Amino acid sequence: MTREQFEQTLHQQPSDGPRRPIRMRGSRLADFDFSGIDLTGADFSFSDLSRANFSNSVMRDVNLSFSSLTDASFLNADLTGANLNFSGMDGADLTGANLTGVSMSFSGGGRNVPPLPAEPLTLANLLKKPFWGVIIGALLGALLVYGASGIIYFTHLVLTAEDRLFAELNRFFAWRNLTEGVSVFLIAYLLSSWLDLKIRKIWLRHVILCIVLIPSFLAVSAASYVLLGKAVFDEMARQPGYNPATESAPWYYYVGASLLIGNMFLYALRQGRQLTLKITEQEFQLLNMEKLKTRAELDALQAKINPHFLYNALNSIASLVHENPDKAEEMTLLLSKLFRYSTGRDGSHTSSLAEELDMVRTYLQVEHVRFGDRLLFSVTITDESLNQLQIPQFLLQPIVENAVKHGISKRAGQGRIDVKIYAQNDWLYLSVHDNGPPFPDEMGSGYGLRSIQDKLRLLYGDNAHVELQNDPYKQVLLAIKLKQLSANSQQ
Questions:
Q1: What is the rounded distance in angstroms from the CA atom of residue 323 to the CA atom of residue 328?
Q2: 90: which of 74, 109, 285, 444 fits an S-S bond (Cβ 3.0–4.6 Å)?
Q3: What would be the CATH architecture of the domain defined by 324-490?
């Protein structure tokens, strides 16, 4: 694609509606000139953008993750909110670039990178600091150990106190603390998602939580007192020398403790939610990267099959041009039909079994023109319902081509190729038989057979395999689990 074509694509955007972001994932755009272009919201992830020129471009919220940006120029570009995670940036020039809100995790290289915004104020980031991390960690450790020790000591008093009244009083306090702790967590948990969605300012979220927690604390305390504590306190009041004011801290201390714990819960819930989202996003990106890698490998296999077949077919046509022009013309038309099949797939790597068998018949017709009566062939399918299954494109053609090249052409007499498709025991079998010389015991796989094995491995893993057989007769047998093909056919 040239710059003129790219700009023409941009100009085709609707003038009466919102501008649609550019989607060019997995593109090869090395050395492309994007200078001065508005690329807001564009998606160039998994692309080759080596030495690309983005000088003075508007690249707000652009997605460049998992891309090659080696020696790319971002001179004075606006990269506000851009995603550069996992990108190779060796030698990339970021002089004068606006990197506000840019994410550059696991991105290496880059020259003249201005300082990025400070890390957000989170507990994880604070604990990483050399001085404050130690102080905060020590305080948290002390509070946790002190709290755990208090729980153990308090519980021991409740269980072992010999004074009935003292034991009942401690049970009341234990029950009240437990119910207040549960209510504080539930309130923080139930409000956290709503606060994240509705309230943008973090400090305001904590204020709202405090406003809700105070009456709930008082309500739980009052209910606990009425149900469990009143009788105990009345009896305690009749004890000589008992003064309730000196037996416990002021009530607002307990309210403050509950507010502190509730806000800590809110903070922890928010951090946990953000961590989950980040992990999910990374898993999604890695999954996409694996899919694109598989597609790239399939593209490479397909690109090698087509020239290989074209070379053989053109040699056949060339040999007939002077000897039999009519046959050469027939072969040319058949070849044209084959390449309409291979080039009109809109990027798909699969086709229906019926289309694949039609292509195989056409190929064998091409070779029949070349060999004449020396070549007989048949293409059969035992169950017509199998025709709708989606299989990898050009799955059978390389095997049939090998049968012609290494089987039929080696015979002095009449040769025969039989292609048979059948289903058995939840497997689809694709058999290509020829009556040429048997496979050698230590046969090295040629490119055509290797490409088939690689395709099946990439697409189906252990649910497909290839066999070369000489007994009971010579054949190449492909086997694919039907459930795999059925799932692909429904997509």
A1: 9
A2: 109
A3: 2-Layer Sandwich (3.30)
